[in-house]
Amino acid sequence: MQMAIACPRCGKSLADTDVNVGTDVGACKACGNVFRLSEAMSAALVLAPDELTTPPGAWFTRGPDGFELGATTRSYQALFLVPFMCVWSGLSLGGIYGTQLHRGRFELATSLFGIPFLLGSLFFWSVALMSIAGKTTLTVRGDVAETFVGVGPIGWRKRFAWSGVRSVVEETRSAGRNGTQTSLFLQGETRVSFASGISGARRSYLLQLLRGLLRG
After folding, report:
1. Euclidean distance between CA atoms 216 and 203, whole angstroms
2. Core vs surface per residue 169-204: b (16+ CB within 10 A) or e
3. Coil vs helix vs strand at 25
4. Which of 1, 7, 125, 199 could serve as a FRET partner for 100 with CA atoms 20 to 30 Å apart?
5. DSSP codes, 65-111
6. How many contiguous H segments (helices) and E segments (strands) does the chain have?
């Protein structure tokens, strides 16, 4: 276990901060972040990767020149989303575009009216597929790091330099009408979002794992 208290935002060590233990407040001189000292101390208690218990649906593997870690985005939401999308797509898209195909006649006004329903179906089907077979991964080979979120080989990727990562934090942000979304953020030369849309247990495991890798 390692202990190195740092600013949750920029990763500067506690030696670079002003701390008031009595009020549980720290103020980082480097970036101006004000944070709770107890949270920073809790984040500093880092276990080595082989000391962590891997929850179901998460993984960590080492390679000759790097490693891969990740977690599935599968969830019980699929039990609701898939039947809902079958009904939604059947009624909305079937009624708007299916009838045109059946009659063999294109109607511009009707087709334009159906575009919001088509875009909505694409969005919700992507969410449904992620809840069935989605995953999020971080792969590091040498100094090349890549995050991925998607289904199988299809998804979104972002590459960056692993040596530029200084810290990892967990943040919860507003997601508009969808409430809030909690993600991990790899911070340093760039700021990369990672591991959104997974369960709390899997995200906590990846957070501790990444902190151990960065400090070990």
Report:
1. 20
2. bbeeeeeeeeeeeebbbbbbeeebebbbbbbeebbb
3. strand
4. 125
5. TEEEEEEE---TTHHHHHHHHHHHIIIIIIIIIIHHHHHT---HHHH
6. 6, 11
Block residue for tokens 């480097």: 30
pLDDT value at 144 more than 90: yes
199: tokens are 């369960």
CA distance 22 to 146: 42
Nearest of 1, 5, 3, 13 to residue 47 by alpha carbon: 1
Distance CA 46, CA 4 (A): 9
**The predicted structure's pLDDT at residue 14:** 58
28 to 21, 24, 40, 171, 214: CA distances (angstroms): 14, 13, 11, 18, 20
pLDDT band at 1 (very low <50, low <70, confident <90, very high): very low
